[in-house]
Design brief:
- It comes from Bifidobacterium simiarum.
- It is a single chain.
- With about 550 residues, the protein is α/β, with parallel strands linked by helices.
- It has two domains: about 300 residues, Purple Acid Phosphatase, chain A, domain 2 (4-Layer Sandwich); about 190 residues, 5'-nucleotidase,  domain 2.
- The protein is about 30% helix and about 25% strand.
- The chain is built from 15 helices and 25 strands.
- The strands form six sheets. Strands 1, 2, 3, 4, 11, 12 and 13 form a seven-stranded mixed β-sheet that branches. It has a six-stranded mixed β-sheet with strand order 5-6-7-8-10-9.
- A hairpin with a 6-residue loop joins β11 and β12.
- α11 packs across α13.
Length: about 550
């Protein structure tokens, strides 16, 4: 009975209006679901066309200046709070090498530890990463334990001259987009590295050509060979050289960070309009840019703007950028405990070893002070002192026992004055900071004519045709006069230890390994014979010389 009633109620006679009402409700529900589905689809489409904001923070040529580490940590913390989860910190090379004593004492391990604490995980390889040789780069600097991916697309990575732990590029997923970072090192690597290091390094392409090759492959629409939505180039070379390169970076490169020359250059662009930014040196600046990215792969659209009003954030009061960062971010983030701890430990170690007095000195040996320049010859006392130290150091070794002349190139010296604080004493730290580059003392034998040519090579004409001297440092036992009346500079009346030097006379000279292998353009030294590295760090020659002459 009951069953029959239910059947009738569901299908027949006087109860049909109720059934229609149920059917109407079901239709309404389905319509609502369809509407919601359509709204969700439209919302997803709108989100897809809405640009993703990606923020890049770049430093370059830090050179182990760990005293700047807390400030950099603070800025990176602010940037990350400004665009949480969508920020990448990078370096355009020379993170280590040529470093102050606090970091150099421990072969820049404090710098590498600090970079890890910052969260810096991508860097172009600069020339100074190779200061201690390819093996040191492979085994220590580029060790995976430091968490940095090192990039240089123009450097050979296989075969007898290959460098390990080095890649052309790396891709990071940021804000749902594939961001490719492509690295390259200066085309002039051979002029800034010792010949002994360059034996194990080969550049297969120019920096710009290599970056274009990788950027084009990542933008060709072929997912099988890698694809990116954004391409950022990290080129360890001068921003002007990159901008004026005859090949030129192509339109597949969206943003370029340059380096190497320690300059601040922020208004250069590629032919297609991508910004080229060089952010100074020593951690004094951080470049911070936003990339707004729509679409993907070959169809992606990228626009670049400065995150905080200007291209760079600077660390001193004369810069207006720090205030812009603070007002833009409104945060009170302080440097990380890890960075502060690394700095404290490095400082303590440096004080113990570095504040030991080496010698008293009668003057500051300031390269910029006219009082420290010979009024008759124009020779700078600091350069003569260090050339004398190179000669003395060579004579203490088997390889250089018969050396007669010492040299130094000003480009190998890192500080303005030897007695930097002017207290009348030189410490281990002050001497080491002056000679911070990782060169050894070396010797080579020249004939008299080539020795003249080496001295003459310090002279060049400026843009107005006037002769200018590069102030090559030569030991105090050498005298000469210059003839600048012709088209080429000539050295006359060359004497060593008071004796005239004949063109065919063979003379062994001493200097740092970089200079004697043709560094800084002094290619006359390459004409010599019997080149030998003494294995003594050139900073040690200065310390020993000062101690023996105190």
């Amino acid at each position: 009975m009951g069953f029959e009633k239910i059947t009738q109620t569901s299908n027949h006679g006087p109860n049909r209006p109720a059934a229609l009402r149920w059917l109407a409700r079901i239709v309404a529900v389905l319509a609502a679901l369809s509407l919601l589905s359509g709204l969700a689809a439209r919302r997803a489409a709108a989100q897809e066309t809405e640009p993703s904001k990606i923020t890049i923070a770049d430093i370059t040529d830090f050179h182990g200046h760990i005293e700047q580490g807390p400030w950099i940590a603070d800025q990176l913390g602010r940037v990350r709070e400004y665009n949480p989860g969508n920020t990448v910190a990078v370096s355009a090379g020379d993170l280590v090498g040529g470093s102050p004593y606090e970091s150099a004492l421990h072969k820049d391990e404090p710098t590498l530890a600090m970079a890890k604490a910052w969260g810096l995980t991508i860097s172009a390889m600069g020339n100074h990463e190779l200061d201690r040789g390819v093996k040191d780069f492979n085994d220590r600097i580029a060790s995976k334990s430091h968490g940095i991916e090192w990039l240089a697309a123009n450097v050979r990575k296989t075969g007898p001259n290959g460098i390990g732990n080095l890649r052309d590029y790396t891709i990071r997923m940021v804000a749902g987009k594939r961001v490719a970072f492509v690295g390259a090192v200066t085309d002039h690597l051979g002029s800034v590295l010792s010949r002994s290091v360059m034996r194990n390094v080969r550049l297969d392409e120019s920096a710009v050509t290599a970056v274009n090759r990788v950027a084009d492959r990542l933008s060709d629409g072929d997912e099988s060979n890698g694809e990116a939505d954004v391409v950022v180039a990290l080129i360890h070379d001068d921003a002007d050289l990159v901008a004026k390169d005859p090949v030129g970076l192509d339109a597949n490169v969206d943003l370029v960070y340059a380096g190497h020359t320690h300059a601040v250059k922020t208004d250069r662009r590629t032919a297609s309009g991508a910004p080229i930014i060089e952010a100074g040196c020593f951690g004094r600046y951080v470049a911070v840019q936003d990339l707004m990215v729509s679409g993907s792969g070959r169809q992606s659209q990228v626009s670049v703007s400065n995150s905080f009003g200007g291209p760079l954030v600077g660390d001193w009061p004369s810069s207006t950028d720090p205030a812009k960062v603070v007002s833009a971010v409104q945060t009170t983030i302080s440097p990380t405990d890890a960075v502060e701890s690394i700095l404290r430990r490095a400082d303590a170690s440096a004080r113990r070893a570095g504040d030991v007095v080496v010698s008293s000195v009668p003057q500051r040996y300031d390269r910029t002070d006219k009082a420290d320049r010979d009024p008759k010859t124009g020779r700078i006392a600091l350069y003569t002192l260090i050339a004398d130290a190179a000669l003395d150091g060579a004579r203490r070794t088997t390889e250089g026992a018969h050396a007669r002349v010492g040299f130094v190139n000003p480009g190998s010296l890192r500080t303005q004055a030897l007695d930097l604080d002017g207290d009348g004493f030189v410490t281990v730290r002050e001497a080491s900071d002056m000679m911070a580059l990782q060169f050894d003392n070396a010797v080579v034998t020249l004939d008299g004519a080539t020795l003249r040519r080496a001295i003459a090579q310090q002279w060049h004409r400026d843009d107005e045709g006037h002769w200018r001297s590069g102030q090559l440092g030569v030991s105090s036992n050498v005298t000469w006069t210059m003839d600048l009346d012709g088209d080429e500079p000539k050295v006359l009346d060359l004497k060593v230890d008071g004796r005239p030097v004949a063109d065919g006379e063979r003379i062994t000279v001493a200097g740092n390994s970089f200079l004697l292998t043709g560094g800084d353009g002094y290619r006359a030294f390459l004409r010599g014979t019997g080149y030998a590295d003494t294995g003594v760090p050139y900073a040690r020659t200065l310390i020993d010389f000062l101690r023996s002459h105190d």
